[in-house]
Each structure stands twice: as structure tokens, then as C-alpha cells.
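quick one before i forget lol
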Amino acid sequence: MLYIIVAILMFGLLIAVHEFGHFITAKWFHIRVNEFSIGMGPAVFKRQKGETLYSLRVLPLGGYCAMEGEDGDSDDPRSFERAAAWKRGIVLVAGAFMNFLTGLVLLVILFAPAQGFLAEVYQGPLEGYGTEHCGLEPGDRILSVDGHQVLVYGNAQLYLGRAGDVVDFVVERDGQRVELDNVSLPYQIRVDEEGNETRLRGILMGSVVDPAGLVEKVEYAFRTALDFVRTVWLSLGDLVRGAVGIRDMSGPVGIVDTMTQVGEQSPSTAAAVYNLMALSALIAVNLAVMNLLPIPALDGGRIFFLILNGLLYLVVRRKIPARYEGYVHMAGMALLLSLMLMVTFSDIGKLLGV
């Protein structure tokens, strides 16, 4: 039960941080904020301070920053719609930025005790694969695979597992950057008991340890956050291609359940704290990316309309009326809520073993 409560609070905190990004930038630009809420549902605490109502609500899985004129026309000169386009853009991006920054800060804290970081290097060929003369040399540090930069340890193996028979590499050899194009690396497919396929390459991968000072720790944390962004994009690509479905997605219920399992399965309290912080960093960056997708009702959808209106004004000196944009966002919200409902039922089904 303790880990369930901690997971709910941590997930709720990530949402609150996102909304705080909108709130603080709106206040900075003197945009009227009618209400700033942490949580959803009935209010357990309310306080009016100036023009803004601050509230704490019973369900900690959400929150909002309600700005005047955000979803339609308003005569208030300080409404969101009447603010300069660049100010609105910053306010909209601020939520995702705060999520990314939160993930980055968590990663810096996690990596603070590290004495060094692993880097992937090529060790040599495996017999029977015909990779003895592939062009790689023992000790080559892998910098990229098929155009995918190796940001953190494990990336080289990951992208080798997704590549075909011919692979492009960029490696560091004796301090020099070397490009190896069209490297022939045939693979064998192994299927586990659950039907998951793994591509086995005819090469051995090893590692070296790079010492880590303060700068290196911050840099590695930033690269890890970027790798999280890339992981989200890979997952979205798998979703579009049909490689994963609704059953593989998780909503708030599934995320809380995953965080709970991570805490319960950790061998110690210290390990549980570490693992939950790492998962929270991943979720924070995930929220940043997802909110910037150009989907109606999300921040990315609003940014899309902001850019579209700017282009229309340059060409025809007209903009899409705010009420019509509001209708699109309302429709998008309805679809998102429907999807979330489906994912929630799927999460509950997985919890019940259905």
C-alpha cells in the first residue's frame, strides 16, 4: 500500500509540475489565470488570492491551469488569446519544458554518486557467422548504428537488434572518427517462450569505463534524457506500424501499477527509491514528448494552430476564429478521453488477469 501511495503522489507531482510551467509563464506575461489546480475532481481546499483561485482536489492524477480566453473568445485584454503569439507559444511549451527539466534533475541526482559510465566497444567476431572481415576492429568504440547516435550504454545493442543484414557504423578508433558503411552483419532470429524475437549478431560487444566528473555526470544525464525522448518516438513508431496495440499501452492506472511493482520488487528501500526516481524521470520526459504532439487538446495541438494562424495571417490576413479552434480541441479532448478510458479498462483487465 505504501508504494501505491508513493506512486500516485509521484505521478500526480509530475502532472502538477507540468501545469506549474504553464502557470508561472502565464503570470510572467501578465496573462489572467482564473484557477490553478493540483488534482482533479471535488476540491478539498480552495483559496482565492488576487484574481486566481488556488485549489487542491481529491484525485491526485491530474491538474490544470485555467487561463482566461484559453478555449474561446474573451473581451478581457489580458486573456490568453489576446496575448502576443510568441508569449502564447512560450506558455504552451513551458509545461513540457518543466517535465523535461524535472526528468533531467532526477537523472542528475541519480548519477551524482557514479564514479564512471560504461561505453560499448567491439570485441571481435563470433565463429560461424562470417563476420571475421566485417571492417570493425577490436576496441572500436561504437558512436552510431544506422544513423542512430549511441547516447547511453545499451544503445548499440538496441539498434543492432533492429537493423537488417547490412549496417552503417560510426566508430572511434585510436582517437579518430571512422565511418564504416554497408557492413555485412548477418543475424539469426531466436524466439523466446513468449514469442518475442531477438536478432543474434555474429559479433561480441564489450565495454570500457569512462571516468565521471561533475561535467560528465550532467552530460550523461542529459544524454539519458534525450535517449528517453528517442525511446518515446520509437514506441510511437511501433504503435503506428501496428507492432504494438492498446493492450501494450498504459494510462494512469497502469503507470501507478508499474511504479508499485518497481518499488515492491526492489531488494531494499534504497534500491526502491533509486528505481522509482529512474522510472519517474522516464515518465516525466515521456509526458513532455506526448504533450508536444500536434494533437488537438494537447499543448502540441495548440502550438500547431498557433503556427497555422500565423501562416494564414501572413498569406490571407485572416485567422481561424477562436471558437472554431475551440471546437476542434473539444473534439480532440473527447477522443483522447475515449482512448484513455479504453486504456484504463485495459490496465484494469491486466491487473485482474483478464
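fyi Helices lie at 2-28, 85-111, 155-160, 214-241, 252-265, 269-291, 299-316, 322-351.
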